[in-house]
Specification:
The chain is an alpha/beta fold and 502 residues long. The chain is built from 14 helices and 19 strands. Helix 4 runs parallel beside helix 5.
């Protein structure tokens, strides 16, 4: 998708369609929309007065211009009630506009940037939101669909500026929006890949491509090195598959210090059958998304490297496959983790926390000052928060709030959950240091507390994206399938932390 900016009267732009925004229940239209309405002999105001255009959040109305202005169509996208407006409404509006135009085969679009929007302080942020919305709306995963019909895409978008002097600022916003949305879509592509394609080796190849493209340092460790480092928890999970695990380390260096300011740890079980504790067959095909945490941190470091904040970030991913086999770990086994702590395996379907235990230990040995892990960890978090919000667990509430704020900025909802020490009783073991499952009650909390055993005292946040990594039906600017949550949150966090390091 190509973006450009022009200082031109909207009615004179050469695009096939012009997108304008409108608030709900405002009796008289103003600004650009008023000028366009005048050129169209008052038809837009007439439709609003008659109630045919309500401008509700998510509503899209297309009007043909019949040659009275240069664009062949005017697409009016609703922003809902002005007093309820927030940034994410504009993202959704742009995605809705994009999809409506794709359906009718439009490829060249102009957008009249709305003004006087609550909470949007600059033209740069405005342009960023428009770019994100259109890139999300233009995305689809059709890689394995052989029928070439209905694969239309918007190819060119022109953002219209009232002033020539705003063009540079608008271009800055477009660049950031493109980076963030393209990174999220990159993760979505990985998550939607069938598990027979996105095996651990393929995930390592994708990481290598990201590192090469952005001139990042990468180290992909094979089984022998993992065994040397005594990453037995990762190896125990991987043993049931013929596809060997890969431990991926990608480093972005944004400042001269050798310190690791922020470690992003992603769970990457490329397919999770549950192992010996096998899952029900219904919906098991969705378990290709159990690597969404790993996809998210690879995509995030991709975005971070393009935005170039002054912060040192490392992405850590243990890519494994969890399958039943004669060599697979069994319920009742005791596994010694990289940290030296022992774990009684109660369920081989609680495999993500096992792999994460070793990766979090590795992050600690690297000296990471802050750690965020991302994992499709528990069905319990889906029960608690559904597909709408990501569960946030932390040993430092202040750091947890930084992550929540970064998510709010991205339109990715986060919710802090309790971490009371009393919950630790549930995963105590009689024969090892701990069990890998604490029972049904408070399952998301006990899983998070299990991970905390491998973190130490440095600020750490665990994001349980089991509900938000993949959605079951279209919602907002996300289509059914992988969402790319929390790529933009992680990128925003790194950018915000870089400002504080200065």
């Amino acid at each position: 998708m190509e973006f450009q900016v022009e200082a031109i009267n909207p009615g004179e732009c050469k695009a096939e369609a012009l997108v304008v925004c409108c608030f709900e229940k405002e009796p008289k239209i103003e600004g650009c929309l008023k000028d366009i309405d005048h050129s169209l002999d008052g038809k837009i105001q007439q439709l609003i007065t008659q109630g045919e255009i309500k401008a509700k959040d998510g509503e899209v109305t297309t009007i043909h211009s019949f040659g009275k202005i240069e664009p062949q169509r005017v697409l009016i996208t609703g922003l809902g009630k002005r007093e309820q407006f927030k940034a994410d409404v504009l993202r959704r509006a742009m995605a809705n506009a994009c999809r409506a135009l794709v359906k009718i085969g439009v490829t060249d679009v102009a957008v009249s940037l709305p003004g006087n929007l609550k909470g949007i302080e600059s033209k740069s942020i405005l342009a960023q939101l428009v770019a994100e919305g259109f890139i999300f709306g233009n995305w689809s995963f059709k890689k394995y669909v052989t029928n070439s019909e209905n694969h239309n895409k918007i190819e060119k978008i022109t953002l219209l500026s009232e002033k020539q002097e705003d063009i540079a600022t608008i271009n800055e916003g477009i660049f950031k929006g493109k980076v963030l949305a393209e990174a999220a879509n990159f993760a979505r592509d990985m998550i939607n890949e069938p598990a027979n394609y996105m095996i651990p080796e393929q995930m390592a190849m994708v990481a290598n491509d990201v590192a090469k493209e952005n001139n990042l340092e990468i180290d992909v460790m094979e089984v022998e090195r993992m065994e040397e480092m005594e990453m037995e928890a990762i190896m125990a999970v991987a043993r049931g598959s013929c596809n060997p695990p890969k431990f991926i380390v990608i480093k972005y260096k944004g400042r001269s210090s050798e310190e690791v300011d922020l470690a992003l740890v992603g769970k990457a079980v490329t397919f999770d059958s549950g192992g010996i504790s096998i899952k029900p067959s219904e919906k098991m095909e969705q378990m290709k998304m159990d690597m969404a945490g790993g996809a998210s941190v690879i995509a995030a470091i991709n975005a971070i490297s393009r935005l170039k904040p002054a912060i040192n970030v490392v992405a850590l991913v243990a890519a494994v496959e969890n399958l039943p086999d004669g060599k697979a770990q069994r319920p009742g086994d005791v596994v010694k983790t990289m940290s030296g702590k022992t774990v009684e395996v109660i369920s081989t379907d609680a495999e993500g926390r096992m792999t994460m235990a070793d990766v979090l230990t590795y992050a600690g040995r690297m000296g990471a000052k802050y750690v965020v892990d991302v994992a499709t960890l528990t069905g319990a978090c889906v029960i608690a928060l559904g597909e709408v919000a990501t569960g946030v667990f932390t040993n430092k509430p202040e750091f947890g709030q930084m992550v929540v704020d970064a998510g709010e900025e991205a339109g990715e909802y986060m919710w802090q959950m309790p971490m009371f020490s009393e919950y630790r009783e549930q995963y105590k073991s009689d024969i090892a240091d701990m069990k890998n499952a604490g029972g049904r009650d408070a399952g998301a909390i006990t899983a998070a507390l299990f991970l905390s055993e491998f973190v130490g005292d440095n600020p750490w946040v665990h994001l349980d994206i089991a509900g938000t990594a993949m959605i079951s039906k279209d919602r907002g600017y996300w289509k059914k399938g992988g969402t790319g949550v929390p790529v933009r949150t992680l990128t925003n966090l790194a950018m915000n932390m870089a400002e504080k390091i200065k």
